Amino acid sequence: TSAKAYKDAALAARLTDRYYRPSQDSDPSFTAEVEKIGGTEAHICFQCGTCTGSCPSGARSSYRIRNFMRRVNLGMRDVCLNDPDLWLCTTCYTCSDRCPRDLIPTDVIMAMRNIAARQGIVPKNFLATVNFIYNTGHGVPNSDANRAARVKLGLEAEPETTSKYPEYIPAIRKILEAYGTKQLADKVLAEG
Ligand code: SF4
Ligand code: SF4
Q1: I want to staple 105 with a disulfide (CB 3.0 to 4.6 A). Which of 95, 138, 148, 176 is the partner?
Q2: Domain residues of the chain, as ranges?
Q3: Which residue, by CA, sits nearest to atom 6 of ligand 1?
Q4: pLDDT score at 2
Q5: Whose CA is nearest to atom 1 of ligand 1?
Q6: Is 112 in the pocket of ligand 1 (CB under 6 A)?
Q7: Which CATH superfamily is domain 19-118 in?
Q8: Does 11 sit in the ligand 2 pocket, CB within 6 Å?
Q9: Residue 146 pLDDT exceeds 60
């Protein structure tokens, strides 16, 4: 809610964010779009920082989930979608377990990744993973070293996945093709 919506002028003045300067990259519809796709009310984030303090990825990188929450709520579409840190979330959901506002920051990130992907903004290493999934059903396919380790542990060499049932790989290919993910990977990776 904009501070201007308050009837009490003194209160409105106190609530005005003096440090926020609306810029060309400020699109309120971005916040609404992210909330709709992510299914979580990002706008009630009160910037406590519990998410960033809990984030295993942030501890090892420049990625800050709280910063993304703030920028989403400022409608900073281009900044969010073009920040490479968007792709550093491991989707562990620790922040979502701990958010005192019961938000799901993980799904805010996933929503932005969806929007970015529709615009072709995806890091190349992610698109290389698409090809692994397309060819094997796995982002990290089984390997001889893994098979040997599994057998040593008393497990079957192949897990109960497409590694063991490769006949299901064509169904996975259909999904990747139906959403244009495979085509996007081929196009971007061919550009070198
Ligand atoms: Fe916002 Fe929740 Fe993160 Fe706190 S933990 S900054 S309320 S998203
Ligand atoms: Fe960090 Fe993503 Fe895990 Fe949340 S889900 S704690 S943002 S790595």
Answers
A1: 95
A2: 19-118, 124-190
A3: 47
A4: 47
A5: 45
A6: no
A7: Alpha-helical ferredoxin (1.10.1060.10)
A8: no
A9: yes
